[in-house]
Amino acid sequence: MSKIWFVSSNEHKYGEARRILARMGMGISHHRASLPEVQSHSLEEIALAKAASARSLVGGAVLVEDDGLFIDSLKGFPGPYSSYVFDTIGNAGILSLVRGDRTASFRSVVAYADDSRTAAFKGEVRGRIADAIRGSGWGYDPVFIPDGAGGTFAQIDKDQLSHRGEALAAFARWYGDGRPPLDASPA
Ligand code: ITT
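Above: the input record for the complex with inosine 5'-triphosphate. Below: its predicted structure, written as tokens.
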């Protein structure tokens, strides 16, 4: 039976990915590791490089993800640098930078690689930066309000409409096309 390793240092990402894919009948296992990230403006390039590193580290079939919060009035900042910016200035810093236009998007690229195939899948959700920290989710969840939602990602069930959900749904459609079903039980 095929096993897909979700390689990430981020427990929250893995938890969401596992739930989202389980709803589609797919199982993944967590390999906790911090993969080297190439410097690039492109999430896709970063995700594909992470997938190559994950293959060297774990072998077999791997799934990785790279995300970013892109704030329109800051010309896409923090974008591919979202992890570093979160660890340095955090949500309070982001709130202090945003004035006027608060529109933003959360983007995800998941990359899959095995012995014969490599592919990347994108997801994006539009929304806006809240005027204050709302809720107690992880990362930027407490400051991002997706379009059409009544609260931040930290205050709603985000799986159905997140950037991650969209990218993983595209992956699952592609993977499921003619492939045998995977064991959907958690690792
Ligand atoms: P990896 O080991 O998988 O790389 P990471 O946390 O370093 O984990 P990224 O490089 O993709 O992941 O960093 C994106 C950052 O954006 C992440 O650390 C969070 O701070 C934030 N982020 C990404 N997706 C998020 C989500 O759904 N909700 C809240 N914050 C998110």
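Notes for the reader.
The chain has a mean pLDDT of 93.
The pocket of inosine 5'-triphosphate is lined by residues 8-10, 13, 34, 65-67, 82-83, 86, 138-141, 153, 162, 164 (CB under 6 Å).
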